Amino acid sequence: xxxxxxxxxxxxxxxxxxxxxxxxxxxxxxxxxxxxxxxxxxxxxxxxxxxxxxxxxxxxxxxxxxxxxxxxxxxxxxxxxxxxxxxxxxxxxxxxxxxxxxxxxxxxxxxxxxxxxxxxxxxxxxxxxxxxxxxxxxxxxxxxxxxxxxxxxxxxxxxxxxxxxxxxxxxxxxxxxxxxxxxxxxxxxxxxxxxxxxxxxxxxxxxxxxxxxxxxxxxxxxxxxxxxxxxxxxxxxxxxxxxxxxxxxxxxxxxxxxxxxxxx
Length: 264
Hints:
The chain has 264 residues and is mainly α. It has helices at 3-34, 37-40, 43-66, 69-96, 120-126, 129-142, 144-151, 155-159, 165-170, 199-202, 215-263, and strands at 181-183, 186-187.
């Protein structure tokens, strides 16, 4: 790749990524002012990512404009670290999310989930008392369970609904408990359950209790996290390929800059 072409590409790619970084930072600031404490913790990685992209883009942009071998070396070294980090994270994400899936129950359209089906990493995170206490507080605040009775007016509608993993695991007792549903968010607990599942005793109709202490709820959260991680992993595959091409062009720009300096 010629000197002019490689430096032109690197210059414009990093200019675009600088603008993207500014947009990411603005989005992170917006998240921090418009979300509650549960989602606000997500803003710190977003702001850090935006700041990191901005810094590395400036280094690449200045290196290409000034044909600075030193800046381009720094740019390529940091970009290589980023590529390795993305690759490691993506591989780990696919490994961690390899286990776990829903179980079908007769008469129900939605699936139920069992905690022991998921990877040991998920089990460690969700069984951590402090982590789960914080997650449970967020689930209660979201009021997903309270909304079920409004979304599904009849028991037939509830059984034929495609509940989310969190709705299926946290808002209702497991089907094996046998508690008759009165509506989407209330069950007749006077029914004597013969199931040995401890979740049957943990479930309460109270808005702040529900099945938030149940393993089925933790399993629902694990399934949600698995889906989110898979999406992130697939995005990372695309990002890795794009950055690999940028890295190749950067290598050409660095080599051409060194050649230009030697002739000057």
